[in-house]
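hey so i finally got around to running the thing on that chain from the lab meeting. sorry it took forever, my laptop kept dying and i had to restart like 3 times. anyway pasting the input first so we r on the same page abt which one it is
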Amino acid sequence: MIITSLHLQNGTLLIAALINIVMSIIVFSRGMKNKINLYFGLLTFFNFLWALSLFFARTLESDIWFLAAQLAYPFALGIAVFLLYFSLYFPFINHKFNYIVHFLIWIPAIFLAVIPFISGAFIVSSEKHISQTLYILYYYKPMYVIFTVYFFIIVITAIFNLFKKYKKIDGPLSKQTRWLSFAIIIGLLTGSYFDLILCYFGNFKYVWIGPIFTAFMNGYVFYLITSSKEKINNG
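ok and heres what got predicted. didnt touch it at all, straight out
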């Protein structure tokens, strides 16, 4: 029964990865000059990489599992950053970031993406239980908190952008933007709880759940992008 449960958990990670990469390919094929397609395609691509890294961290038996576990963190940052840029353009462009804002977004993101690979600066030690496909990372807690705070600032800003647009839209697109905001909130809250908060306290049993909710979140966005009859302005 335990083995069946573990196979089911790992299988859901692969399914979530597959769903995201299919959406990414389809959206990119619609034209990357459209900023909505570009940033949503990058968002789903990084979701694919995130789910895949968690899968390999749980299933690989060599030391490569630790590299996969480390990679999950920069991939998660990519999800947050590209969600923020997507929120600027969907369903219409509200404003653009100036060079200072771009700098304030990307410099911390690059720094925090590199930190997990610096020995002792982020992940102090680790262990792996092969029979249970369970791994545990032990963090340098202050750096982990900085990482988490940055992540939440980015995603909360993205949600705020969408809510501001919702108040300016009439008709079916208003309802879609509202439900999109709720879908993103649910996806990000569940993903953050299972893959950031619980992990802070050393509980890695449920990291496979986060990508499932974000896949559903992205699926709803994908539906809006590919089926909406309303005019979408890419700026």
